[in-house]
Amino acid sequence: MHQIQQKIISLLRDQGSIPLKYREIGRRIGEKYPQTVKHHLEALFQRGLVVEQNEFIRLNQTSEAESSFVNLPFYGMASCGSATALAEDRAEGYIKVSKNIFPRTNVSDFYLVRADGNSMNQASVGRRHVSIDDGDLVVIDGTKRNPTGGEYVLSVIDECANIKRFEFDEARERLLLSSESSDEYFPIVIHPEDNYHVMGEVVDVIKLS
Fold first, then answer.
1. Which domain holds residue 50?
2. Model-level pTM?
3. What is the mean pLDDT of residues 103-113?
4. Among 28, 44, 59, where does a domain finish?
5. Can you spell out the DSSP letters for the chain?
6. Is residue 186 domain-shared with residue 95, that is, in the same domain?
């Protein structure tokens, strides 16, 4: 394998994914000619060693079951206060995460958002009973979109992403998205016919500090 191709592979192993921009890739590996980067990147595509997704490139892990790591898509900010952070359909990148931190091995439907705000700083998530603080990476299981009550969920309200505890008030036929915080927050009250969608359940939190 050519030295430039080895550098690209090493970069992806270290960072999980990188934007598909030849000049930026060249800057990171010390190659000043974008066309040279393009040539070697195309060779890696042809060999099936890298793949493109949402204008990012990442290693082609055809057998993730044999790997201890997974590249999880990262979708930006989700509010832990009022529903103000815009939800995005496209991943902003991919973050390499060890499978060993999760309670199950099949993590292909997991993705990440970054918590914005402190309205869930007394939450108790997952087997480690961890809180959700401002700036944390929150792990979402996208297959769990039908909560029954008591789950921490990522919701989209009027195209804005929000993390809250899901409660169903059957007597009043309404949904409550409640905070668990050291500060006082009123719940978000939702009618079943509102423009509201559960995008997945919070299954873990990755602390960055």
1. 3-59
2. 0.71
3. 77
4. 59
5. --HHHHHHHHHHHHHS-EES-HHHHHHHHT---HHHHHHHHHHHHHTTSEEEETTEEEE--TTGGG-SEEEEEEEEEEESSSS-EEP-SS-SEEEEEEGGGSSSS--TTEEEEEEESSTTTT--BTTTTB---TT-EEEEETT-----SS-EEEEEETTEEEEEEEEEETTTTEEEEE---SS--PPEEE-TTSSEEEEEEEEEEE---
6. yes
